[in-house]
Amino acid sequence: MAPSLTRRLIALGSSDPDRAERFLAAPELEGIDEELLLEGLAAAPDPDGALVSLVRLLEKEPRLRETVEAGLTRSEPMFRLLGASEALGDFLIRHPEHLDVFDVVPSAEPQGADPIALRASLLQSVGADPAAHRPVASRVGADAWEALRIRYRRHLCELAIRDLGAASPTDFLPAAAAELADLAAGALEAGLAVARAEAAPTFGAEAVDAVALAVIGMGKCGARELNYISDVDVIYVVDGEDPDADPSTVISIGTSLATGLARAVSGTAREPGLWQVDANLRPEGKDGPLVRTLESHVAYYERWAQSWEFQALLKARCIAGDPELGSRYEQAVAPFVWSSAGRDGFVDSVQAMRRRVTEHIPPAEADRQIKLGAGGLRDVEFTVQLLQLVHGRADESLRVRDTTSAIAALAAGGYIGRSAAAEFDGSYRRLRLLEHRIQLAQLRRTHLMPVKEDALRALARAVQGIMDTGKSSPEALLDSWHRTKRSVRELHERIFYRPLLNTVANLSPEEARLSPEAAQGRLAALGYSDPQGAMRHIEALTAGVSRRASLQRQLLPVLLDWLAQGVDPDAGLLAFRRVSEALGTTHWYLGMLRDSAAAAERLCHVLANSRLIADLLEVSPESVAWLGHEKDLAPVPLDAQWQEIQSKISRHEDPTARMRLVRLIRRREILRTAIADSAGLLDQDEVGNALADADQAAVLGALRVAEEQAAARGPLLTRVLVVAMGRQGGREIGYGSDADVMYVHRPLPGVDPAEAQRQAKEIVTAMSGLLTQPLRPAVLAERVLQLDADLRPEGKSGPLVRSLDSFAEYYRRWALVWEWQALLRARPMAGDDGLAADFMRLADSVRYPEHLSQADITEIRRIKARVEAERLPRGADPARHLKLGRGGLSDVEWLVQFIQLQHAAQHPELRTTSTLGGLHAAAELGFLDERETALLAETWRLSSRIRSANVVWTGRASDMLPSSRRDLEAVARWCGYSPGQASALEQQYLQLTRRTRHVFEEKFYAVGR
């Protein structure tokens, strides 16, 4: 029993067999053998679309029946085209006079059309002489535009028929892409001929003819690898043949020609436009003049162009207009292109451009992108172009424009392995073919994988047998596409980095081996400032036949990439080598890097961006294990640290050995916090709390050791309390913060006060000394905990430690208003709990005065002005000093403390040692409005973050916003800015502090009131 028509249509790929049956019964198909129709539809990617277009065509031109009735040999090209492109079907319906495109039976191994013949045909469509020096059209306006577009689409149909009928569309792809570029070039040439004719009445025919305009193709058009539908990127170069001509007139004529050309191609007319002519790659982009002289172009590239602009010029080619002027342009810009890889920041600029492209992908499209997403066409093009620019400086064989030729040249030159090149080339062709087939359907500029099942099924049929699958189901298509994307991402690592290893290690002969010079050039282009040193590190890591060397050879292609994305890849690679050597054959280390991409990437990130972390990891390499588990990076609570410290110091008698264990725990916790901070696992408040806990635990340990030392010499005579002050008191410290403290003691009952004072001083002096003893091995980036007691009564001239009674007497009789202010951030840090409670009651009675007199207010303002005038380092820029500069940390903190001194007695909400806590309390009470509070908080947070970033980046404390671009870039990245956004950080900081200073002066000095 023969299968029903419905079942046969479903088997052919019809998504709506009922509708298809109705169209098969249309009067236009009456008398045509149903088997011939079904046989033809079986060849169509979209049988439903092909059937609908066929019926509509037969309605326009009944003679097309002869093609169908002649059998599949004649009709297959027609069914393929109608089933692959509804847009070209619509074109033929609008212009049935071009149905003779189906009269030529295409070859299974087609060739590209002659570019000279295409140019001539398109020029003739507007009535221009192809042999003329500067062709001028005899047709103008809409008439010329329509004729040009119809001729263009006729040629597009001819190409699509050959493309769809090719036995191997991937083999034909370069020829098809080149022909599309030639078609675009011919259309621009014809459009220019129309523009000349249209400009003649305005400027005069002779004046127009005396102006040479060269149209420089960029991107895919310049490289002769254009899509079916794509913007055509161009640059215009103009020149006047008459030396006496007014330059402004020449520019005006050139601009008229360029705009007229674009109108002819894409202006509104009955026949739709072809594509957009995009001149935004010109110097200065949209803000620059549309046309320039060659001299103006060269001047711009010499002085102002960015590295990415030279990468764009890699594909520049004269595609229309004056060939001699275009040739001079190509020769003039070539030296810029092939020297660009040696420019400072070259790789940063190129990578930033790639990131910008990725960042601008709408989230809803990220997983559908064939071109811009991970593993897409841009990854292939970026890799190939970067290799060309790096090695093309010395090897002219790499100076080719199109991607497939460039891959072949790189393989022939030994810059990439032949098998990797073949795989890369194949992946690129498959992705381009997907893009072509998707665009061909509606002739719309898109790079997105369809989501509708019908469209996916038609696409799967269009590329069946090409995307590594013999099936035509949507599932098989998507699976194959995802495999291709993964392959592209892996190939980037293999192609770009693996040959570096081959230069210094004995790898598979299948891989390419770069010369030492070429390998160093590649490392320099990646951003390594000492390529020779980097090569030595690579050699040390990969030499030999051990398992460790083998694993390093597998890992380094990926790790070199991640390190190169850091601010200092040289330091990162050196640190990686040292960490690896320190861990030796530790079984878990390389296994973790191999099995946990997140841990490996995190390690590379911190090593290349932080001297502090790199140095600490070098002396504590076992801490690398934390990178594989986020739970290990969670801050250890203060109580847990204190328990561990007590346990460890109980096992040793020697104070130095005991204190070394305390210092090691503090160093470990600072490292843990810094790594968690770099990974974005902690917010700024959590970082401050974690660092404060590490310092407090160390002070607790030092006090315990110092007291036990004193007890060993005789009975304890007093209880000691360490009071945290300043930022330490507010638990808002950074990586470079010292600890401002005061020391309080209370003699035990019946003890001579003088003896108790003597012992208290011995204890606090010993404690401070124990904390500042250097660890071994010493680390430059490690900061010992300095205890600064300068905020005590009478400052440096007063006794280092006082009894509680002495504090009470001093504050009652002699305390100055600045000492009240200093107490606002007092917090018990270590010592006797009872003494701590009593001291805090005393502090509250001083720091929260019932009334602040006008004299007190004047004195506070005077002191603040004196601090600004006297403590700012000589030569420091006040706009860039994070602490004492205009609108810096000091301004925010003094304003908050000023409000607390005035109002905390009446408003307990203000009684906090935290700057931000006090700020928000002041806002809730109405002393600051929401806008002011948000501004002050943002400024304080950013200034604090920059201050910490200085330490993380260099290992040394600094209160200045860096002026060095490299340092500023490192600080910006730590502060959460994207790579290349250092100037954005600088601009934001300067703007915030300027506005903060205005608020501070208004509220603190009552300026403007």
From TrEMBL:
Keywords from the named record: ATP-binding, Magnesium, Multifunctional enzyme, Nucleotide-binding, Nucleotidyltransferase, Transferase
Pfam families assigned: GlnD_UR_UTase, GlnE
All residue ranges annotated as the Glutamate-ammonia ligase adenylyltransferase repeated domain in the record: 78-331, 601-840
GO molecular function, one term: [glutamate-ammonia-ligase] adenylyltransferase activity
The UniProt record lists the keyword Nucleotidyltransferase: yes
Tree of life domain: Bacteria
Cell membrane keyword on record: no
Listed EC numbers: 2.7.7.42, 2.7.7.89
PII-uridylyltransferase/Glutamine-synthetase adenylyltransferase domain ranges (all copies): 352-496, 863-1002
InterPro entries in UniProt: GlnE, GlnE_rpt_dom, NT_sf, PII_UdlTrfase/GS_AdlTrfase
Enzyme class: transferase
Cited PANTHER family: BIFUNCTIONAL GLUTAMINE SYNTHETASE ADENYLYLTRANSFERASE_ADENYLYL-REMOVING ENZYME, GLUTAMINE SYNTHETASE ADENYLYLTRANSFERASE
UniProt-listed NCBIfam families: PRK14109.1
Protein name: Bifunctional [glutamine synthetase] adenylyltransferase/[glutamine synthetase]-adenylyl-L-tyrosine phosphorylase
Lineage summary: Bacteria, Bacillati, Actinomycetota, Actinomycetes, Micrococcales
